[in-house]
Amino acid sequence: MNKFKENETFAHTYLICRFDTCYLIDPSHDMDEINQALSGRTLAGILITHAHYDHIDLIGEFTAPIYMHKEDAHLLFEDKYNGYSPKNHPYRRKDLNLNYVNHMDKIPFADQFIEVFHTPGHTKGSLCFLYDQKLFTGDTLFKESVGRHDLYSGSLPELRKSTIFLCGLPSNIKVYPGHDEQTTIRYEQKNNPFYLKWTKQSTK
């Protein structure tokens, strides 16, 4: 796995490969480094955790299918809400090969698959992707924290439900968020204050 680390403008971008087949998660920066990492390999698809500008800036640079949730499709083009404003998004709708996926869908990946989780809360169409015990959570789950719910199409009740769902996954899963450090489900089960508070509330 390759990680293109976040900077002041853009989130982490991840590249996962199996044999000579790869998927790019939230391509937003370091185009030259991405191309170098892809050298000699096939880009089978792009996985979008959600449609905020700091996760999607490079999606127009590739011809591969883009996998995202339909609830975030309009957000790609609404610059008032996706963070591009006062600038305009750099990609064109006609150049994007959008494919909509839903909760528990499985995306073929060489001889394996990537599992899709719909985790609304940060945005209505937020997704997480699980492959090889690695969970890519975008802006839904962070180390000892969760994503904002006060932006356009965000929802605190949905974020609470999504966080409880993710922290109920097997504890050995490693978590790769869109920002900050990686973590594990086990660590979040014990240390994430939002999860601990919300699970306590749900059992009352």
From TrEMBL:
Transmembrane segments: none annotated. Keywords: Hydrolase, Metal-binding, Zinc. CDD domains: metallo-hydrolase-like_MBL-fold. Its cofactor is Zn(2+). SUPFAM superfamilies: Metallo-hydrolase/oxidoreductase (SSF56281). The keyword Nuclease does not apply. GO terms for molecular function: hydrolase activity; metal ion binding. InterPro entries: MBL_Glyoxalase_II, Metallo-B-lactamas, RibonucZ/Hydroxyglut_hydro. Residues 10-179 form the Metallo-beta-lactamase domain. It holds the Pfam family Lactamase_B. Coiled coil: none annotated. PANTHER family: HYDROXYACYLGLUTATHIONE HYDROLASE GLOC (PTHR46233:SF3). This is MBL fold metallo-hydrolase. It comes from Peloplasma aerotolerans.
